[in-house]
């Protein structure tokens, strides 16, 4: 009972910390609240009228929602790049940033699950995913495997940091034997999360665009580039607007992880392009549509070449030490790399798999205003959660809030 009382007090103190701040903080939270309300209204329209108000159809049944889901799975899994060196390799330089990375993983996973919820139409059909009550179809369906790994990874990323913060809130050191098993599992689970998501697409025989053995490795490489890039941007904001300071060498080590991952991602992209266009077959039509268009159908061509261009620029900046050590250039590289991979893992991966259809018909996809509104609202929700978690975490780590007996 005593531990429950202490935990309840920690939640209350954390909530109090998250609801107080400077004018800039309240403006930021107000902006996020506005976008969440916009997303809620857009979702209300979707529930009222059905998925017909989206740009999706029976030809292209996965659009902006699943594109963002696929990208955010990578952002969530990227936390392992901080967990692994901190708790297993004992690299103290990462210790300052690891709880921030875990908070980002939780926010990304909440967004992932929310994107799945809105993609199926409405919450009324989610009971089909409940084992024993609905048709969960486990272990035959890769979709159910994906939902299992998502929820287990979310549970791990909540419980392990929560235990560490709970001990620090009491002014005590966290017991390694308690949290280390969860850390070890999270490292394995982060890789499994990405590979299972890749298998979900690879296993669809009627979609040859996704039938490549490099899909899983490219998922990991792009995840370990985009996720840490977002973490660096978050750490930069924390350094700027809080008293919790992250050392430059910590950020530079994370930047080195991004550099290697971005380079590996480009190498695998080049390998896929060679496979698709050096000896093209009828299975290369989707790639032809994506990179060069099919006749007058060229909706995705500017998107993918913008992504590749940004990818090359960001990787070039990161590759040269003198450029990477310039913090302004590093932040610029992280922004454009994040945008590049968002395009690549979204419109560049999901939509082309449906074009052309199995019978050769070309139906292009453009997201509707409702989809955009819901998507912006979900991203605002993720930022809102991350801001609250980060603010409470920093207060505990700095000793600003402590349990008073």
TrEMBL record:
Keyword field contains Transferase: no
Source organism superkingdom: Bacteria
Residues that span the membrane, as ranges: 21-44, 64-84, 105-127, 147-166, 178-201, 221-242, 254-274, 300-320, 329-356, 376-401
Family as reported in the entry's similarity comment: Belongs to the NrfD family.
Alphabetical UniProt keywords: Cell membrane, Membrane, Plasmid, Transmembrane, Transmembrane helix
Record has Acyltransferase as a keyword: no
Main location: membrane
One Pfam assignment: NrfD
InterPro entries named among the record's database cross-references: DsrP-like, NrfD-like
UniProt-annotated location(s): Cell membrane
Protein name: Polysulfide reductase NrfD
Record membrane topology: Multi-pass membrane protein
């Amino acid at each position: 009972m005593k531990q429950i009382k202490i935990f309840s007090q920690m939640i209350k103190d954390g909530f109090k910390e998250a609801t107080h701040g400077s004018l800039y903080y309240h403006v930021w939270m107000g902006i996020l609240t506005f976008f969440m309300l916009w997303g809620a209204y857009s979702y209300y329209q979707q529930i009222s009228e059905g998925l017909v108000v989206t740009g999706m159809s029976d030809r292209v049944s996965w659009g902006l929602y699943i594109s963002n889901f696929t990208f955010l799975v990578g952002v969530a899994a990227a936390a392992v790049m901080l967990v692994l060196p901190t708790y297993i390799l004992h690299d103290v330089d990462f210790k300052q940033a690891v709880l921030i990375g875990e908070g980002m993983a939780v926010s990304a996973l909440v967004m992932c699950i929310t994107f799945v919820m809105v993609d199926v139409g409405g919450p009324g059909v989610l009971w089909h995913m409940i084992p024993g009550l609905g048709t969960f179809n486990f272990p035959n369906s890769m979709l159910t495997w994906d939902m299992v790994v998502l929820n287990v990874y979310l549970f791990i990323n909540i419980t392990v940091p929560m235990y560490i913060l709970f001990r620090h809130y009491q002014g005590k050191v966290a017991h390694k034997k308690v949290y280390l098993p969860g850390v070890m599992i999270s490292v394995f689970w982060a890789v499994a999360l990405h590979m299972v998501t890749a298998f979900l697409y690879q296993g669809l025989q009627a979609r040859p665009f996704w039938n490549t053995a490099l899909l899983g490795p490219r998922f990991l490489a792009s995840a370990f580039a985009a996720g840490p890039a977002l973490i660096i941007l978050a750490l930069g904001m924390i350094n700027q607007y809080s008293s919790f300071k992250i050392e430059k060498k910590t950020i530079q080590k994370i930047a080195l992880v991004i550099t290697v991952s971005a380079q590996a991602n480009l190498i695998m992209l080049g390998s896929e392009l060679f496979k698709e266009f050096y000896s093209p077959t009828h299975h290369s039509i989707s790639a032809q549509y994506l990179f060069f268009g099919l006749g007058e159908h060229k909706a995705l061509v500017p998107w993918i070449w913008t992504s590749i261009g940004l990818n090359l620029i960001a990787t070039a900046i990161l590759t040269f030490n003198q450029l990477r050590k310039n913090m302004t250039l590093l932040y610029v590289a992280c922004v454009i790399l994040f945008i590049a991979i968002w395009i690549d893992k979204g419109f560049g991966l999901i939509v082309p798999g449906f074009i052309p259809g199995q019978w050769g018909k070309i139906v292009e996809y453009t997201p509707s205003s409702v989809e955009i509104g819901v998507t912006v609202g979900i991203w605002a929700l993720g930022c809102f959660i991350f801001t609250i978690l980060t603010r409470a975490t920093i207060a505990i780590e700095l000793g600003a809030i402590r349990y008073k007996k």
